Amino acid sequence: MMRSRKTTWAAFAACAFFCCSCTIGPKYQAPTAPVAPSFKEFRGNDEWKMATPSDGALKGQWWEMFGDPQLNRLEEMVSVNNQNIKQSEAQFRQAQTTILANRANYYPTIGSTPSITQTDVGKSTGRGFGTSQSFSLPVTTTWEPDLWGRVRLAVQNAVDNAQVNAADLENLRLSQEALLATDYFLLAAEDMQMAILTDTIQAYEKNLQLTINRFGGGVASKSDITLAQTQLDGAKAQFTDAHIARAQYEHAIAVLTGQAPSAIEIAPTKIAAPPPPIPLGLPSTLLERRPDIAASERQVAAANANIGIAQTAYYPTLTLSATPGFLATNLANLFLYSARTWSAGPSLSQTLFDFGRRGAAVASAQASYDATAASYRQTVLAAFQEVEDDLASLRYLAEEAGQQKEAVTAALLALDLENERYKAGTDSYLNVIQTQTIALSDQQTEVTILQRRMTAAVDLIKALGGGWDASRLPSGDVMRKTSTQAVPANTHEVAQANGN
Hints:
Elements: H1 2-20, E1 48-49, H2 69-81, H3 83-103, E2 109-112, E3 115-121, E4 130-143, H4 150-216, H5 222-256, E5 278-279, H6 286-289, H7 291-311, E6 317-322, E7 325-328, E8 340-341, E9 344-349, H8 357-423, H9 429-463, H10 476-482, H11 491-497
Parallel strand pairs: 1-5
Antiparallel strand pairs: 2-4, 3-4, 4-6, 4-7, 6-9, 7-8
Helix pairs in contact: 2-4, 3-4, 4-5, 4-7, 4-9, 7-8, 8-9
């Protein structure tokens, strides 16, 4: 009898061992995505350049290429104080705890239900009067071996989803950094517009005084004074209105850096130069440089693991349980060898008929995988579109900037000539007004084009991944390791643990 029991347990142990070495479900392969051999809009312009091994493409602190110390200081505050990033970091840590929870299913569940039972027997029972006590200290152990890799697939799914959160965190970080840079250049453009308006207002005031003097000398009409005054007041109104947009950009920057709008004040600034050359790299490297693409690919991996999890429902579940313990009628005898007690035994459960429920679950998981793979490919296509759009914007804006500069030069020359003609009395002040309006509009347009070039450069850097690459995504082995230890505050710490 004893040999038969040992043989049964050995058979179950062998079954559990061999089943744990099996994993159900399709082997994961990253889905293919359409990748062009080169960027269509790349023309070798000075606005960008191909990355070479020596320059290493974009760096992590990409904003430093703009050479603006005030922008550098503000950008450094984003990762530290931005509340959206802090929220995403917390969600990443939460995803890591899911790995820990799933890993725990590799091990048995151990519990205990100690009890003291007292029984009183009355005389009416015919068995005499008395009190009996029993003391029980059982230990319950239950273990479900990882048949068919069910637990392994659940852990892999949790790891994949945690990597999605890690990539989402980096994508959000990049988005917030790019948004701050965009707002900063918009603010700088407003400062430049106000500087133009300041000079224009001073010129208009001089023209108004000149017109008043000419009217006093009888060589100008009252209508000329009215026109000059109207033009001056309109320029002042534009100057006042520009403060609204500047204040809003300043408030937005404060919130992006985790501060109240009243806590930050940005000194007047300007865009010192056109955007610097931006290293592109080959289109194929874009798949490794964008955190949103990495997040989408990890979602496909998680969906693939879900197919395997659904397929394991077709296979039996083995549960091994044992309840060793002590049982005695006297507390002093509870821990004696003679008080020992135990029970143990395996159980096997298998669904025989579910009328298509498991098949529907597998089909649903497969459909979800197909949808996620299509979403991944769409993310890749959208990424290439963003890069091409930004390259086109930079190329054509550079051409437009040159053309607009010529227009400004011509408008200012025409204004000088018109002023001289008016002073000489050979032309009306209406022509001066029209030429001044054209000159102001051309100068303002020139600033707007420069601002659009800067924001297009920021958008291109964001579209290229901002210096991030897939090697900074925490690996599956590191995620499994760190999930059982202290959870890192952000993915940079995980990357350091991974040797990156």
